[in-house]
Design brief:
69 residues; mainly beta; SH3 type barrels; five-stranded antiparallel beta sheet; 1 helix; globular
């Protein structure tokens, strides 16, 4: 599973399923999986169950592309 780091990585995989891992739990979880719908000044924006979630750069430890089978 490829790690996304550069803005060009996020542009390339727009609309794909990603996993966002956090430094501290957010809403009770250390990671969230959803569809990448945006990237803005280091903030990752994903869609989870038809809801939008935005995680600022300071909250994000790692972002990886998830393969779906």
């Amino acid at each position: 599973e490829r790690e996304l780091k550069r803005p060009s990585d996020f542009e390339r995989f727009f609309g794909k399923t990603i996993e966002v891992r956090h430094y501290q739990p957010i809403e009770g979880a250390k990671s969230h999986v959803g569809k990448l719908i945006g990237y803005d000044n280091g903030a990752v924006i994903i869609e989870i169950d038809k809801k939008t979630a935005r995680y600022d750069k300071a909250q994000v430890a790692q972002v990886r592309l998830r393969t779906t089978i």
